[in-house]
Amino acid sequence: MHNFKVLMAQIRQYKRSTILTPVFTLLEVLMEILIPYITAALIDQGIEAGNMDRVLHFGGIMLIMAFASLFFGIMSGTFAADASSGFAANLRKTMYGNIQTFSFSNIDKYSTAGLITRMTTDVTNIQNAFMMIIRIAVRAPLMMIISLVMCIMINPNVSVVFLIAIAVLGVVLFGIIGKATTAFRQTFRKYDNLNASIEENVSAIRVVKAFVREDYEDNKFTKAATDLYNRFVRAEKLVVMNMPVMMLVVDFCIVAISWMGAHYIVAGTMTTGELTSLLSYVMNVLFSLMMLSMIFVMITMSAASAQRISEVIEEQPDIVNPENPVMTVRDGSIDFVDVDFAYKRRNVSYDKDGNEVITEEAVSKERSEETLHDITLHIHSGETIGIIGGTGSGKSSMVSLISRLYDVTNGSVSVGGVDVRNYDLDTLRNEVSVVLQQNVLFSGTIMDNLKWGNENATLEDCKEACRLACADEFIDRFPDGYETRITQGGTNVSGGQKQRLCIARALMKKPKVLILDDSTSACDTATDAKIRRAFATKIPGTTKLIIAQRISSVADADRVIILDNGTINAFDTPDNLLKTNKIYAEIYESQQQGSGDFDEAALAD
Ligand SMILES: Nc1ncnc2c1ncn2[C@@H]1O[C@H](COP(=O)(O)OP(=O)(O)OP(=O)(O)O)[C@@H](O)[C@H]1O
Ligand SMILES: [Mg+2]
What is the distance in A from the centroid of ligand 2 to the CA of 402? Predict the structure, then answer.
């Protein structure tokens, strides 16, 4: 129930349409209800009595009412479309807006594919259910009650027949629906899985092809699709049972009422017209009952979607601005004091109705689960720091704490002498520019992508950043230069070109701290060295943290951090490390052996 409340709050400017829909539906129903009543009068007073004037009179009224009913129907349909599409748009906007405030760990919790499914399939489910509810949830009970009253007014004795019919039909319909709802709910869960697998595979299609796994993925998908097909058929089969059952009951009613009615007409206590209108009212009542049962399916089916949407709307970003944020970063010095860090553990379970429940476990205090342990270090403003360590040793995790992509579990991280948790987030992230290990370019021109780092930048600023990142040489070779279009995901530039564009983009902010997470791994060593030389001479005041796999990338750093299994193994100048540190010396040795690198000569000059 709470979930529906959260959703309803998103109707906002579409309240008018949401209310007008049932109002026009009401008018439409009134017309439809009165028509059989007029028909009765037309038959009894006109046809039976042979009075042509009365026939024309009532015929005219019926025509007007039919048109009025058409008009009201169109109006209610229009408003329903407006209300439900608007509602869906609001839901999407609110979700999207909230997702933008998510921290990295909020995103970890849902996964990207999960968020996309929630914003598409789930919203569509809710939109359809909402449309149906505002139109039919009013129409069906209204139709049913008024028709019932009309029937009883015409002939209470005959009405008993279909009161029994309603009871029988009600039990049968809701029995079927109860079963169908369970079937549908299971089906929808499969649907989510299918969606997630489509999103993952289509976006990773290049990897799939590179590994020649098309057949495997294809089989996996076919299996999932077939499974979904079977489940849908099972669920729909139950729902379509509604119609024949309903028709059977209707036919029984018609026979019973005709039989009784014939007796009454012969006895003179009922007119032919009354019998005809009675029969149409009976149809109305039974159809409404069927509609109601369908709405019941819709609501229960959309409950899961409602829950998934309201989760996203209500998710609180766990990294937010402090109350009185510090708005300036003094310098690029960085301090870690007794820092421990662990990623939150994400648990997916299913409640008794089969709905997905995601919970995050409190960060464990166990050392074995910590990604970083007991890190203390001081980096001076303007220093160039190399960071090396085996894969999974926590390099990326460590630097993500500096721009507060994640918060520490214990201890504190400071930039410019102020705890990062006291800064205004935008200020901090503008001054601490990170080139992430998995970086992306956006579709648009190179210029668009660079301006993404700083929207007020001029062409000259962009060119300057590209010179620093050694991106100018290849951009100048493109026929369209800075107006060259980048395709989605940056697939039309090489790996090394993409990395250099990402570095240039990070430089656009003119940050006090620049962090490169394995950002030149795809560049040849000569280019790598050229970029570092440019940094040393052109932006000497900026603190530079360079994570690298190659020793040569950190050999000219002021100091080097060696991370080992989440702890600092050593933090010293490269020369000292070479003499005293076993890990450093070993990596150095092993990489020296591969010194047949074709551009080693270029590096030497
Ligand atoms: N978002 C995340 N959620 C949970 N665990 C994570 C997450 N990111 C990293 N980890 C875990 O944290 C540990 C350290 O990962 P990290 O990415 O910091 O290593 P790294 O030193 O940067 O490695 P690489 O050299 O391969 O980039 C790994 O064991 C990894 O499984
Ligand atoms: Mg990493």
Answer: 14
Q: How many CB atoms within 10 Å of residue 72?
A: 20
Instruction: Let me know if residue 11 belongs to a domain.
Output: yes
Instruction: Assess whether 180 and 245 both reside in one domain.
Output: yes
The environment of the single-atom ion ligand 2, i.e. residues with CB closer than 5 A, is: 396, 437
Residue 133 lies in a domain: yes
Strand residue runs (E) in 198-344: 334-341
Calculate how far, in angstroms, residue 567's C-alpha sits from the geometric centre of ligand 1.
13
Write the CB contacts of 422 (distance below 8 Å, at least 6 apart in sequence).
Answer: 322, 325, 326
Q: Which two tokens stand for residue 46?
A: 């006109």
Condensed to tens digits (0 to 9), the pLDDT of residues 113-164 reads 778 888 998 899 899 999 988 988 888 988 888 888 888 888 888 888 878 8
Which amino acid would we find at residue 349? S
Q: Give the end-to-end CA distance of the chain in Å, rounded to a whole number.
A: 71
- 417 and 554 co-located in one domain: yes
Query: Under a CB-based contact definition with an 8 Å cutoff, are residues 353 and 390 in contact?
Result: no
Q: How far is the CA of 18 from the centre of ligand 1 (A)?
A: 48
Any idea of the CA torsion for 60, 63, 64, 66, to the nearest 10 degrees? 160
Q: Which two tokens stand for residue 469?
A: 């990142």
Tokens describing residue 546:
């360079």
* Residue-wise burial string across 295-329, b where 16 or more C-beta atoms lie within 10 A, e elsewhere: bbbbbbbbbbbbbbbbbbbebeeebeeeeeebeeb
Residue closest by Cα to atom 2 of ligand 1? 343
Domain ranges, residue 530: 334-441+502-604
pTM check: above 0.90:
no
